Amino acid sequence: MSKNVRALAAKCIFNVVDKGRSLSDELPHAQAQADDKDSALLQEICFGVVRFLPELEYCVRDLVDKPLKGKQRVAHFLLLVGVYQLKYMRIPDHAALNETVSAAKPLKQFHLKGMINAVLRNYLRQKPEQSTQLPEPVEYNHPSWFIKKLKLAYPDKWQTVLNANQQKPPMWLRVNHQHYSVEQYSHLLNEANIAHQVITVAEPTILLDSAVDVAKLPAFDNGAVSVQDGAAQQAAWLLDAKAGDHVLDCCAAPGGKTCHVLELEPSITMTAIDIEDKRLSRVEENLSRLNLSATLVSADATAADWWDKKLFDRILLDAPCSATGVIRRHPDIKWLRKAEDIDALAQIQQQILQNIWQMLKPGGTLLYATCSVLPDENKAQIEQFLSKTPDASLQAITLNADDIGWQILPDEQSMDGFYYAKLTKNN
Ligand SMILES: C[S@@+](CC[C@H](N)C(=O)[O-])C[C@H]1O[C@@H](n2cnc3c(N)ncnc32)[C@H](O)[C@@H]1O
């Protein structure tokens, strides 16, 4: 494959949208084939096209004679790559157009060069104005099944959620309290001229004004700091493990929350399990960078065959979920996730919850977490569990006593969408 950035982008987007592969797997593969200097451009184009897919498809729909199918399908994505640059990037029009047209050859679509050139020129000439008549999936760049679910769940806020999902995500830092306080690390950032704010949700943490390469973060290699969204950081604070506790992190990979819990209380004994071996090795890498330790177990959390029968004081269940709260970070979720996945995920979540409840000590705490905004995986899930589990009670997290758990919507205090519920096992 050539090093043509637009060709690599079109192929990568084709693999995500048509082949159902994940953008976080496909992009590094494309970047490995590009020149280093083009890596950021490739990322911007791939994320941008996947984020604004329906809107870009709407722009070209009436400009092509007939839909591009089969072997020509990759040219469809090349057209979207072209329109994205013309609509959203600061590349001069003639450069974006010429570079996009010349990507046809490495994609083996040389015969479509003239058509691609004509469509992009027509787009520039006509630039269809956004009207209020746009179908909702085009206006909000989300699938209609998801818009429908959001409207039901958040009649007053669904548009805010959809708009938040289309923004570029901010970069948050988690300060390792074994090294520095947030205040001390904030000083180091000031000395390094890295603009940021200290934000307090449950505890103070750091939000950067713009993303930076981790290599530029003071003492990153020494484990002084990690990249983790503010919403995900709430898990360890809420779990509130105490010295000497026996803790289970269920569904732990890649280990962001495992490490945070240990940073706050290194004297605990931590067991971290995940069903995916490959992802478990990322937990190991993260622990080793931060000089922390845990017992890692590759196992299915719906079964108990891996458990030595020693009860846990605290359990964090960061359940497998639709990830609909982190769409701004992973826009491919909009196209990879299907409506029918939600019921299947809700079933697994309930199975895991019921299975690991037996592993919790009386008086112990289980923190249920998802990065979903859908009540089926969150509030409804906890209500169902409480109704079936007489020895479980819900602890309040928010100030509103009627809330079943804490639903954070995307961009609330700049955080990702997340859900937490804290359950106690009655003595
Ligand atoms: C939301 S991610 C966890 C993120 C992690 N807690 C963190 O903070 O870095 C969910 C994880 O659940 C794992 N998983 C999915 N089904 C599982 C199961 N049946 N048993 C154990 N782990 C499972 C996935 O492999 C994935 O790593």
Automatic annotation (TrEMBL):
Location of the protein in the cell: Cytoplasm
Parts of the chain that traverse the membrane: none
PROSITE patterns according to UniProt: NOL1_NOP2_SUN, SAM_MT_RSMB_NOP
Enzyme type, top EC level: transferase
Superkingdom, taxonomy of origin: Bacteria
Record-linked CDD domains: AdoMet_MTases (cd02440)
Binding site for S-adenosyl-L-methionine: C251, A252, A253, P254, G255, G256, K257, D274, D300, D318
Keyword rRNA processing found: yes
Reactions it catalyzes: cytidine(967) in 16S rRNA + S-adenosyl-L-methionine = 5-methylcytidine(967) in 16S rRNA + S-adenosyl-L-homocysteine + H(+)
Residue span(s) of domain SAM-dependent MTase RsmB/NOP-type: 161-426
GO molecular function annotations of the record: methyltransferase activity
InterPro entries with a match to the protein in the record: MeTrfase_RsmB-F_NOP2_cat, MeTrfase_RsmB-F_NOP2_dom, NusB-like_sf, NusB_RsmB_TIM44, RCMT, rRNA_ssu_MeTfrase_B, RsmB-like_ferredoxin, RsmB/NOL1/NOP2-like_CS
EC number: 2.1.1.176
Keywords: Cytoplasm, Methyltransferase, RNA-binding, rRNA processing, S-adenosyl-L-methionine, Transferase
Keyword Protein biosynthesis: no
Active-site residues, Swiss-Prot/TrEMBL: C371
Pfam families found in the cross-reference section: Methyltr_RsmB-F, NusB, RsmF-B_ferredox
Gene Ontology biological process terms, A to Z: methylation
PANTHER family: NOL1_NOP2_SUN FAMILY PROTEIN _ ANTITERMINATION NUSB DOMAIN-CONTAINING PROTEIN (PTHR22807:SF61), NOP2 YEAST -RELATED NOL1/NOP2/FMU SUN DOMAIN-CONTAINING (PTHR22807)
Family that this chain belongs to: Belongs to the class I-like SAM-binding methyltransferase superfamily. RsmB/NOP family.
Role description: Specifically methylates the cytosine at position 967 (m5C967) of 16S rRNA.
Protein name: 16S rRNA (cytosine(967)-C(5))-methyltransferase
UniProt organism field: Thalassotalea eurytherma
Gene from which this protein is expressed: rsmB
